[in-house]
Structures are given as C-alpha cells and as structure tokens.
Amino acid sequence: MTRPSRYPVSSFGPELLEILVRGAKDRVSIPCPNHKTMQALQMRIQMLRGAMGREKHPQYELTTRARTSRTWNREAGKDVDCVLVIQPNDFQFSDILKSAGITPSAPMRDILDDTALPDTPSDPSIESTSPDKFDNPYNRFK
Questions:
Q1: How far is Cα 24 from Cα 62, in angstroms, rounded to an integer?
Q2: Of 50, 80, 85, nearest to 69 (Cα)?
Q3: Are 26 and 87 in contact (CB under 8 A)?
Q4: Burial class, 123, CB count within 10 angstroms (exposed 0-12 / middle 13-18 / buried 19+)
Q5: Tell me: the pLDDT tens digits for 23-51?
Q6: What percent helix, strand, coil does the chain show, rounded to 5?
Q7: What is the pLDDT of residues 78-124, one digit of tens each?
C-alpha cells in the first residue's frame, strides 16, 4: 500500500492548527531539541496550511497571515538553540511603522476581528469535511 502524496486536514493534530492561528496574531517561539526536528515541524506546519487551502478550510485565510522561520546558534553548531518562530508576515515592521506614526486611515475588515468569522467551528481540524471525491486533481490522469 502506498502512502498518500497529500494529507487531508483531519490527519494533522489540532496543536498544529493552534500554532498557525496564534502565529497569525502574535509571535510564537517553539524551542526544538535539534535542527532536524525543527525542520520537520516547520514542514508539517506548511503541509497543514497547504491542506487547508486545498480543502477551503474556514480558517485558511487567517493562517496565511503567519510565516515560519528557523533560528539556531550558527557559531555553536546546527543543533544548538534551535527555535522555530511563527509570526504575522509583517510583524518585523510593526515597531518601525508605529514609531513613524503610520496607522490605517480607513476602517478595514480584518480577519482577526471576532465578527469576521462568525460561523467558524471551535475545532475545524476535526469538524471540517474532506474534499469531494470528484475534486481529486489526479482524476484527470486516470
């Protein structure tokens, strides 16, 4: 039996979804025991986001706000002080923009607003439905 090339959202743990949602709102740092584990965790998070996009998950738009990056102590070695960082895409510019007095001039719909996603289930990784069996991109090659 072969392994599926793409996993559905339901195959990921709810902790990974929580990491992405938190990372879309604020900086999250996750210490890792070594570089290989940190790299595997980052890849798994990216795989979840890809599955969410394919399945049109209700929180996909929110999780696209988060970006991941890996840091480690380059002088001491690849497996020293490994930290996976998940944060909003423009988080690194927030202090610069605030100090320059730049704020949005017109009220915009923000996906982080509680009213923006009123029908979002409490744990979408469990409650989301798998894609329609006819939505398989490989059907055209059969």
A1: 7
A2: 85
A3: yes
A4: exposed
A5: 998 999 999 999 999 999 999 999 999 99
A6: 40, 15, 45
A7: 889 999 999 998 888 888 888 888 876 665 556 566 544 445 455 54
Report the number of secondary-structure helices (H) and strands (E) in the chain: 5, 3
Q: What SS3 state is found at 89?
A: coil
Q: Which of 107, 97, 85, 88 is nearest to 25 (CA)?
A: 88
Check: pTM over 0.70? Answer yes or no.
no
Domain range annotation of the chain:
14-102
Q: Is the dihedral of CA 136, 62, 84, 71 positive or negative?
A: positive
For residue 6, give both structure tokens. Answer: 């793409």
The token pair that represents 24 in the structure block? 């879309």
